[in-house]
Amino acid sequence: MSKRQKLLEKVLSGSRNIAFSEILQLAEGFGFRLVRVSVRQFLDLIERYNLHLED
């Protein structure tokens, strides 16, 4: 099992101990590439999908 597969299992199991760098690795495994981090784009996603923080 690859490192990315183990990481995906960790995320899907509900672990809350995941580093930002691990999320980036996982996204890259699905073909996404980080060009830059835009706060505005992040906020747009939150608004578009009506996301809420968990307590």
SSE topology sketch:
Elements: H1 3-12, H2 20-29, H3 39-48
Structural notes for this entry:
The protein has 55 residues and is mainly α. The protein has one domain (3-48). The protein is built from 3 helices and no strands. It is globular, with a radius of gyration of 13 Å. The model has no long low-confidence stretch (mean pLDDT 83).
Overall 3D form = globular
Helix-strand category: mainly alpha
How many beta-strand runs? 0
Query: What's the order of the H and E elements?
Result: HHH
For the structure shown, list the relevant keywords.
3 helices; single chain
Task: Give the gist of this structure.
This protein is mainly α. It has helices at 3-12, 20-29, 39-48. The protein has one domain (3-48).
